[in-house]
Structure formats: structure tokens, C-alpha cells
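Continuing the batch. This is chain 6 of the set; chains 1 through 5 are on the previous pages. Same settings as before, nothing changed between runs. Recording input and output for traceability.
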Amino acid sequence: MTENITDVFFDLDHTLWDFDKNSALTFNKIFTLNNIDINVDEFLKAYEPINLNYWKLYREEKIDKESLRFGRLHDAFSALSKNVEKDLILKLSNDYITHLSSYNYLLDNAINVLNYLKNQYKLHIITNGFDEVQHKKLTKSNILHYFKTVTNSEMVGVKKPNPKIFNFALNKAQVNPENSIMIGDSYEADIIGAQNIGMHVIYLKVNNTPYVNGVKTIDNLLQLKKYL
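Output for chain 6:
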């Protein structure tokens, strides 16, 4: 496989950038700033599955960005029987986006692996995240310089797994799918999406997500050295 690979495409959140850790720190900060009396761990237990479902709806073009940002907070507070006014939820939503890139922990071995790959391959990002936020994450975590191109869903008007975003990224990178590989944590968005246009794939399995037969799978970025 690696003999033909010239370009490596990464997802960003949960793949290089430690979204869970950074997000938890951000909620702790904005709850303090806004005098929200709630246990962050308890909140996150309710919020995280709700957030994943809202992102699924967003990927499927069933909701817009504003609905995602408001709805995930509203539903999480409701699940905890916490009455929070609409205006405060809107403020928290904006504060979350403002402060999210203040924390920039990367997944274990991310820098190690990027340094290993950069001399052998051209590196790229394909992300469903919001343009203004993703650029800050890449810059403030000091990894932007590793990537020849960065493609986000707002540039293209569609989200992974839509083939248009992958084709856009490949055209931007001036590379064919058979010479490219996609690495990501979302089986639906990253793996299926990339496979559907002929890219190679490596699935980063996080938490308790299942293994998938026939798909090269890692559970730590360092394991990429086995394949690339």
C-alpha cells in the first residue's frame, strides 16, 4: 500500500487535536465566567452523546451550524433538569467557540508522528469543523506548518462523508485518490467517505468503538509507523 502513497490526509478533532480534553477545559472556563453552578463531569456525561448526535445531523445536512451550537447545549441542560435561559445558552455557545482554541492539547504522539511523516509524504487536513475555529486550533497548537493544504466543510458547502469534500481536497492537493490515504476517528465520515472515492484509509479507533473487518485500524497514532 505505502509504495504508491504520496499524500496523507488527517481529520483534526479526535485524530490529532485532543477534542475531549480541550472541550472539558473550555466548559469549565465558560461555566466559571458565567456563574453556572454545575459539575462539569456530570454535564459532559450528558452533553457528549447529545453533541455526537447533533454532529451526525449536521453532517447529514439536516440542521445548520446555529442549530447545532444552540441545540446541543439546550438539550444537555434539559437532560440534567437545569433551567437555563435562551439568551444565556446563546452566550455560552459563543463563549465556547471563543475559548475553545485557548486549550490546545494534542493526542499522544501526534508531534512525533507528524515529524516522522513530513519528510516522506505531503500532509493535509480534511475537517468538518468550523473554519474560524479549526484554523485557530491548527495555529495555536503549532501544527499548521506541517500541512500543505487544509480543507474544511465550510469551504466546500458539504461535510464528510460527502464525496465533494474529498474531491475538493484532492484537487487542492493535486493528487489522485489511489495515491492518498485518509486517517480519521469517524468510521462513517472519514473511512466510508474516503473509501467511496477510492482513497486508502486507516481508522483511528477511539474509546470503545468496534473494530471493522478489512480496515486497517490503530488505537494510537504511533502505530501509523507500521503502515506508513
